[in-house]
Amino acid sequence: METKTESKRLILLIDDDQINLRVLTLLLQHAGYDTMQASDGHEGFQMALEYNPDLVVLDVMMPKMSGIEVAHKLQLESAVPFMFVSSCSEKEIV
Fold first, then answer.
1. 59: which of 15, 22, 49, 91 fits an S-S bond (Cβ 3.0–4.6 Å)?
2. Are the CB atoms for 56 and 85 separated by under 8 Å?
3. CA 91 – CA 39 distance, rounded (Å)
4. How far, in Å, CA of 38 to CA of 43, rounded?
């Protein structure tokens, strides 16, 4: 896990799929970003509050706390921007 440096933007990746985490991490680091990873929503939410990343990338379906729940809590307790990345269809989310 890397932490935020002065010149690089920090992106927190929250996904329970380890392959997705590895691929996103490699792509973002290659593009010049620092990254941190969490494998469930609860851990990711705590990391977002502690490290104040520049962006949080969330999977929708995760154990302990879904990406939707994390997003709602982030909106209440933080100003960090977030985006969703998911392989599930809209019908699975609703």
1. 15
2. no
3. 24
4. 6
- Joined together, the tokens standing for residue 66 give 């879904």
* Helical H segments across the chain, by residue range: 18-30, 41-51, 67-77, 90-93
Choose among 89, 82, 79, 87: nearest CA to 13: 82
Q: What is the pTM of this model?
A: 0.84
Tens digit of each residue's pLDDT (9 = 90 or more) over 6-54: 568 999 999 999 999 999 999 999 999 999 999 999 999 999 999 999 9
CA distances from 68 to 31, 48, 94 (A): 27, 15, 10
Kindly list the distances between the CA atom of residue 25 and the CA atoms of 72, 73, 88, in Å, as whole numbers in the listed order. Answer: 24, 24, 20
Q: Which amino acid is at 2?
A: E
Angle formed by the axes of helices 41-51 and 67-77, nearest 10°: 30
Residue 57 class from Cβ within 10 Å (0-12 exposed, 13-18 middle, 19+ buried)? buried
